[in-house]
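Q: Could you fold this chain for me?
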Amino acid sequence: GNTTVTRNWLRQMGSRPIDVVIDDGSHVNEDILAAFEVLWPAVAPGGFYFLEDLAVGRSPRFQLTNESAAMSDVIQAWIEQKVMLNGTLARRAPKLHGPRRNGSSRAASTGGAIRSELQERFPLPPQVAFILCQDGACVLGKDAEPAARHMWLGGQGCRSHPGVG
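A: Sure. Below is the predicted structure, expressed as structure tokens.
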């Protein structure tokens, strides 16, 4: 919960990236999100960030994130942005017609409208490669550098990265 301590610890580490973070600290939603916002940028490409005990976030004992959502809601919004509302789905969504704020009419895709709301409330952190959740815990993986991603996939290289594999 104390981001000053976390920031000082990161400064003492220097510029070394962190391969794995396991957040087993406070169960208060604001603390979980604050720690994530400080530590995620320090996670190395290809690294992992684990969040646990998320099921308790709806208990009255634990405060709500920005008084609007439990941490599980934030993660759900990230998942929807990452997986369900990618560019392809948003382009295929039915069109909504409605007035602009200035009174003129416009057409907007349903996917785009949903995506805008989610990004405004809980924007997807940069470089999230995947989010996996099970039984009250989640892990976020950070995008690997292109060469490492090809090695993970067992590729033999490609035209954009010859010899990688």
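A (continued): Strands lie at 18-23, 43-51, 95-99, 105-109, 128-134, 137-142.
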